[in-house]
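Chapter summary example.
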Amino acid sequence: MYDLVIFDMDGVILDSGLNNFLWMDRIRMKKAEEIGYSFDKEDAIQVVQATEMSQIEELLERKNMSMEELLQVEHAVQDAKTNLIKHGAIRLFPEAQNLIDEMDVPVALATNAPLKTTQLTLKHFNLRKQFEVVKSLPLDSFETYIERKKPHSYMLEKAIDEIGADKPVMIGDTSADVNAAQNAGVDSVLVQSYDEREGLNPTYRIRELAELRSVLNS
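The structure predicted for these 218 residues follows.
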């Protein structure tokens, strides 16, 4: 029996993967163009998937771009996400609210979504009280953000320590979630919300969040 369930947010609780998250890439490309830089989809993906500062530094050097300008691009993405939530284009997955409410063990949130956006999301959907611990990183320092975001185990370990859990499980939809769980030495459930995510080795795979009940009760 697990004594702590740690949820990711986007793609697990929040159905934000419009066009497989292509909307985020487009915002990055558009904002970069507005401030004088040419970004393509691969550049946008490099920012999202970076796990080391050297990957960010390579992009900045290649584009002759400053860290402050890249932060402008990322803040534009978060502003757009907030607007999509407020206007109903991004919603909770149908079972998310009920499933979280039903939990009889502590529930935590560990998300790569920046702190400000995470706080606004939880407030908008009236979810903050459901989570005993929320782990999200401020987007004011790329160095700290990159060093601590998933797949690094930092947020998971902090949540586990705060609850004092012995048998936690991570619920996520990406390689970052599965690898963060592995790096923290805990089980993982991969929710295949948008695609199959082949090549990953989670403890469990499910196709939609409703199936989590059978995993947790098995």
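To summarize the output: The chain has two domains: 4-16+91-217, 22-86.
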